[in-house]
Amino acid sequence: MALGPDGALDATLTATLSASGGRTVTGLRLDSNWASAPGVWLTSSPGTGHWVLAAAPTLDGAMLNAPRTLAVNFRVADGGSFVVFAGDYLGSEFLPGRTLTLIATFSDGSTATAVTTVAATAAPAAAPMLTLTYNGKLRDRVGQGNTALGPDGALDGTLTATLSAPGGRTVAALRLDSDAPGTWDTSSGSVDWVLAVAPTPDGALFNASETMEVNFPVAYGGSFVVFASDYLEREFVRGRRLTLTVTFADGSTATALTTVP
Hints:
Elements: E1 11-16, E2 23-32, E3 39-42, E4 51-56, E5 74-76, E6 81-86, E7 99-106, E8 111-117, E9 129-139, E10 156-164, E11 169-178, E12 182-185, E13 193-194, E14 196-198, E15 216-218, E16 223-228, E17 241-248, E18 253-259
Parallel strand pairs: 3-4, 12-13
Antiparallel strand pairs: 1-6, 2-3, 2-5, 2-7, 4-6, 7-8, 9-10, 10-16, 11-12, 11-15, 11-17, 14-16, 17-18
């Protein structure tokens, strides 16, 4: 009679009814086809030897089972749905490929059966990777300030970043660090100087004119260019280590490091 949480997530299934006028559900049974120990869960489990099958109108709705008998008696409209919950056994009842069968008994004595198969879990997306190349002081695209989005008469440190991420990513923020030290970013709200970003050395800047923020897509294998204003001619001298950190729209990040040759 384990009608309550036990610290382990339950298998959760949604059943949708197609029946003119709706029906009143008075019993439920779920079966799993695990050959070693076929699972059975019921809404009248006391004394049966089977585990309880909990039912609720929604994922977080109040349980419809009676607290002592675990029986159910609830109305479902035509096209309506409800959710059932089943505790797992040895982490094996709901593995990909398992066939699950739900049998519903209604107050008029009729029954309905539905079958589903546990889908394979999608592999996690590969973490995005970034490579960084220092191109030299090639262009004058920014000045010395956190909103100095324009030339100031001095060439900027110019770097190319290349993305390796299946499906590409959308870049939402950038930060460049030099071990001189120095920091540039794409936020006018920080005290750091602006880091300008463009698709190519001479392309239009991606930065928003007031906030300095960026939001642009990069394809798998695609690249973009960043520009950082120098300070006292010391941020981009030979041997400096430069680190670019990119934040993507999905919250993931990637970091790349290069050394000024």
